[in-house]
Amino acid sequence: MSSMLKLLATTLLLSSFLEASVENKKVEKFLEESFKNNPNIIALKVSVIDKAPLEKLKGWESMVVSIDATVKTKTENKVIKQNMVWFTNGDVITKELIDLNSGSDLKDLVAPSFKNEFYKKENLIYGNANAKHKVVIFSDPLCPFCRDFVPTAIEEMKKEPQKFAIYYFHFPLESLHPAAVELSLAANAAELQGSKDVVLNLYKVEIEPNERNVTKILEAFNKTMNTNIKESDLKSPEVIARHKQDLDIAETMMVLGTPTLFFDGKIDKTKTKYKKAD
Q1: DSSP line for 148-212
Q2: Which residues lie below 8 Å from residue 255, measured CB to CB, with a gap of 6+?
């Protein structure tokens, strides 16, 4: 490539970055001004953290917006962090776009790209970290669909460690399956104590999803895992930190249900992309 062509390519690249930056700032400023109309908000930061063109709507793109706000209540000031999805064509911004043919909300198809720093060593359960494809699974071990799908998917992918790096994140749905919280904590404790194949065996634990008795939950867990995890182990700083880290990442990635899969950094609503991977 000639020096002139290199200069032109660099100029175009910098121009595209500049346009994206200007558009981001335009959206951020608009939303900040809109939210500031709420008198209870005493501090606010709005940031566009991800964006992608909409396949179904030419000229439009989705934006994942991070909201960091301090809100005044009757008793105290609360810090709220939340990711939201907005749509824009550069001139118009809206929170909802509905497909007239299917009736689906296009917002349901949007999720942030999985960040490189979230591929944690402690979440890699099978495969080589440098494998061709990275698959991320957020799951609740007592979710009925998870129990049918997750172990099968993991068993299929673990056969090809150079092809798939499988990262697992505990995401217990406490309101639906309260026992899943203790099971997830116990799984972290078992891994920290050196147990192997913990995640796969986790789906073999038989316990009522609404069980709240920690002793009963741990009895079922230890019987399946052949471990001796105690209630005190669930409260260790290392276990709590790992549990919180998974939940924080799930919140950042806007995970709401289980199982949720990301394939090579993008959300996989079909949950089948690993089957078609080269």
Answers
A1: HHHHHHHHHHHT-TTTEEEEEEE---TTT-THHHHHHHHHHHHHHTT-SSHHHHHTT----TT--
A2: 111, 138, 171
Q: Is 64 exposed, middle or buried (0-12, 13-18, 19+ CB in 10 A)?
A: buried
Contacts of 143 (CB under 8 A, 6+ apart): 173, 176, 177, 180, 258, 259
* Amino acid 34: pLDDT: 87
Residue 16, pLDDT above cutoff 50: no
| Same-domain pairing of 136 and 26 | no
Residues 96 and 123 in one domain: no
Most confident of 1-10, 96-105, 152-161: 152-161
Assign 247 a pLDDT band (cuts: 50, 70, 90).
Answer: very high
127 shares its domain with 104? no
* CATH number of domain containing 212: 3.40.30.10
User: How do residues 193-223 score in pLDDT, each as one tens digit?
Assistant: 999 999 999 999 999 999 999 999 999 999 9
Residues 236 and 210 in one domain: yes
Listed residues 71, 93, 109: the one ending a domain: 109
Could you tell me the residue range of the domain that residue 17 belongs to? 3-109
Helix segments in the chain, DSSP class H: 3-35, 144-158, 179-192, 198-202, 214-225, 231-234, 237-252, 273-276
